[in-house]
Amino acid sequence: MQLRSLAPILLAVVVPVACNMVTTHELDAPPVAIPETIDPPVIPADAVITLNSPGEAHAQLCQPDDLHPNFPDDADLLTMTFCQDLVPGGVMPTPHSLADLLAQLGLAFEDPQGHNGQGGNPAFAILGHSSALTARHVTTITPTVFVFTPPPADGSPPQGTCDADGTHCQKQFAIVGFDPGQQFVEVAVNDLAVGTLNFYVVFFDQACNSAPGGCTTTDLLTPRLVTGWTDTRVYEMTTALGNTIFDCHVCHQPDNSSPNSFLRMQEIEPPFTHWFSSQTAGGQALLADFHAAHGTSEDYGPVPAALIDQSDPSLLAAFIQQAAFGPQPNAFQSAQIEAEVEASAPQQPAVNVPPGASDTWQSLHENAVAGAFIATPYHDVKITDPVKLATASAAYQQFLAGAATDIPDIRDVLLDQGLRDMGFAPQLALTGRQLLGQMCQECHNSNLDLTQTRQRFLVDQLDQMSRKEKDLAITRLNLGMDTRLRMPPPLFRTITDHERQLMIQELQQ
Fold first, then answer.
1. Half-sphere exposure of 498 (CA within 13 A, CB side)
2. Which whole-number Å values give the CA distances from 484 to 52, 145, 234, 280, 429, in the listed order?
3. Which residues pair with 177 in a beta bridge?
4. Contact at 8 Å (CB) between 285 and 128?
5. Which of 30, 90, 422, 504 has a CA positioned 20 to 30 A from the CA of residue 66?
6. How does DSSP classify residue 384?
7. Hey, how many other C-beta atoms are within 10 angstroms of the C-beta on 346?
8. Is 234 helix (H, G, I), strand (E, B) or coil?
9. Per-residue pLDDT of the chain in tens (509 residues, 90 and over written 9)
10. Do residues 185 and 164 touch, judged by C-beta distance below 8 A?
11. Residues forming a β-bridge with 178
């Protein structure tokens, strides 16, 4: 089915249907639980102030250890390639673009007119709703892209072996996660020498970082983001990164008693509700909304324009299962949830106002509200407000046509009445303790690495917490938006003043 020709049609019809027509379901719908105030999902300027400088970060990354006797050539793929300056005659790579980094990791798109995961191309999948680091910035119009080593067709693990002399482990796997608007990418690679999975965040600067006024949305939310990189620096999850909002452990090693981290894909079952795919009704609806903004000739992040409609979440699911990470905590049951949502709101997935409902989803969501798991993905395929999305899409189309030189923040299209069910805002009518559980416990619990300073505040051990630590938490709940110490970080959560006061009252006991 050719989706691209449907994009302008859907853009034209979705808004009137969603906003101007009253259906039976709207008349019967429960009151909308829109938060009275919504904090913007900002990353404060001091978010990475505790991390090493580029030179120090490289020295830390490239410090030899006893586990890799042929270091760096028997280290994981990212370390091995970045640390080639330790090899006689070798040079440290300095990727100046996303394409450079992908090529360094063996993930270059060799045939932009070819196929997903074939003919020398890496595999890729595009996600329109996330529970990860930049979740409040990920939408249909600004989705996350995962580029990864294609899983073997025979079902074997997606990894190879080193050469006979133990060097040049070129067949190791790699996964790169790209989000628009962010001057970093996330990387996961396997370490064959020790049998572990390692996570990294690769930061970079652009010319706009030193320009008056800094980087604009046009610098960060258009193809400008993927080129012109400088000061590329790499931080591994076991470094000081673990004590910042960029910590990988919360999602990928939530139980510190387990020695290894793992890959997450909550929607690992078909029909992969929030993933772009031409093979599913939901995936087609997401692709149509994406093309309404981006058209059909613009590359998106690392993916060539001609390949975008080949996004295939089943390849990522196969990769994760073949790498032995198939069982997922609190896994999203896509087929059952989508069926229940459509039964409650028959215009789904194309029209998401009014929202749908699912008892299966509700039980999973309650686990997350209790602080036992990361946020459960939203029950509906679309997480966007149709009016906001149409406005942002039109603005981006004007930019593409040359009728505008800048763009608004096109990430600001979330459906406000869905924020609570997306886990970005707390559920209604929670007590102060319950609010601390849903909003804070994911990052502050006794199962995580207790050597991190933030683990002095353990929500699951609130009754044992000292008065000093509770007072410090109260102070941080009252901080402004411009500091990394604010609780909860607005990049992840938004709470109202009333909810904040309930949390403070609980901590004052």
1. 9
2. 16, 26, 20, 40, 28
3. 146, 186
4. no
5. 90
6. B
7. 12
8. strand
9. 333 333 332 333 333 333 333 333 333 444 458 999 999 999 999 999 999 999 999 999 999 999 999 999 999 999 999 999 999 999 999 999 999 999 999 999 999 999 999 999 999 999 999 988 899 999 999 999 999 999 999 998 887 545 555 555 456 899 999 998 999 999 999 998 898 999 999 999 999 999 999 999 999 999 999 999 999 999 999 888 888 999 888 888 888 877 789 999 999 999 999 999 999 999 999 999 999 999 999 999 999 999 999 999 999 999 999 999 999 999 999 999 999 999 999 999 999 999 999 999 999 999 999 998 999 999 999 999 999 999 999 999 999 999 999 999 999 999 999 999 999 999 999 999 999 999 999 999 999 887 877 778 999 999 999 999 999 999 999 999 999 999 999 999 999 999 999 999 999 99
10. no
11. 145, 185
Core vs surface per residue 119-156: b (16+ CB within 10 A) or e: eebbbbbbbbbbbbbbbbbbbbbbbbbbbbbbbeeeee
- Among 126, 124, 127, residue whose Cα is nearest residue 147: 124
Classify 389 as helix, strand or coil: helix
Q: Domain locations in the chain?
A: 432-507
Which residues are bridge partners to 197 per DSSP? Answer: 190
Q: Would you state the structure tokens that stand for residue 60, as one six-digit string?
A: 């830390």
Which residue in the block uniquely carries the two structure tokens 């910035």?
A: 137
Report the interhelical angle of 432-440 vs 359-369 (nearest 10°): 100
> Tokens representing 231?
């000061």
DSSP letter for 130, please. Answer: -
Backbone angles phi, psi at 366, to 5 degrees: -60, -35
Is the distance from CB of 274 to CB of 349 less than 8 angstroms?
A: no
Tokens 């970079």 correspond to 204
